[in-house]
Structure to design on (225 residues):
């Protein structure tokens, strides 16, 4: 299912400086080759932030950085059969063959209204690994969604370079008719970084769906509802 979802992303167009995807990601290639995810042997979570959670959003608190990493590992295996079994461990530094997930502040972590946002992240890709640095664990989560998109689009080979990505607006989602299959729509949302689904029942009543556990991962196959 995930492979089919990500496949539609090839229809997107953007300038050469950006990662093609939904949405596009500002990214500057370094010319340093690619990182082949077939080399990936471990996802490492920064020990200092492993239990951190984003508390700057709405009332429902997303999971910890470590929990996001576990979901990322499961999703990676789902879309990249060639990638070997991936373990998730805590550590302090990135090493060859790893994706390192951490949290830090950055003055460029701002949305379209020039407000700081906890959903922003920076991604740095070299020929030996990837570092995703989020404004919060939720920012890291969106960075993993971008990496999954690129893995699906480019057969697991990620171009080396650097980018900073922030959502344009705090609320992003999809409105659908209640006649459509709920499960199908649910599976379309997390790859494209949506976090809210609106369902119209009458002309003047709209129902917004949030997870009972944690809204960012409601729409990921790695964490059940």
């Amino acid at each position: 299912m995930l492979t089919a979802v990500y496949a539609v992303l090839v229809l997107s167009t953007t300038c050469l400086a950006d990662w093609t995807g939904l949405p596009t990601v500002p990214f500057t290639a370094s010319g340093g080759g690619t990182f082949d995810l077939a080399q990936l042997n471990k996802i490492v979570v920064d020990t200092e932030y492993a239990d951190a959670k984003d508390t700057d959003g709405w009332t429902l608190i997303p999971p910890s950085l470590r929990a996001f990493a576990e979901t990322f590992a499961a999703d990676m295996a789902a879309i990249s059969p060639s990638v070997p079994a991936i373990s998730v461990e805590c550590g302090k530094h990135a090493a060859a063959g790893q994706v390192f997930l951490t949290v830090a502040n950055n003055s460029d972590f701002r949305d379209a209204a020039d407000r700081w946002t906890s959903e922003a992240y920076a991604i740095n890709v070299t020929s030996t690994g990837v570092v995703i640095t989020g404004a919060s664990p939720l920012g890291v989560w969106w960075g993993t969604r971008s990496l999954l998109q690129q893995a699906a689009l480019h057969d697991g080979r990620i171009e080396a370079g650097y980018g900073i990505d922030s959502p344009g607006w705090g609320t992003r989602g999809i409105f659908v008719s209640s006649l459509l299959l709920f499960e199908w729509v649910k599976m379309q949302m997390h790859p494209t970084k949506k976090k809210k689904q609106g369902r119209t029942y009458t002309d003047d009543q709209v129902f917004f769906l949030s997870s009972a556990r944690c809204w960012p991962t409601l729409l990921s196959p790695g964490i059940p509802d």
Q: What stands out?
A: Confidence is low (pLDDT under 50) at residues 4-16, 210-225. The radius of gyration is 17 Å. The chain has two domains: 2-165, 173-217.
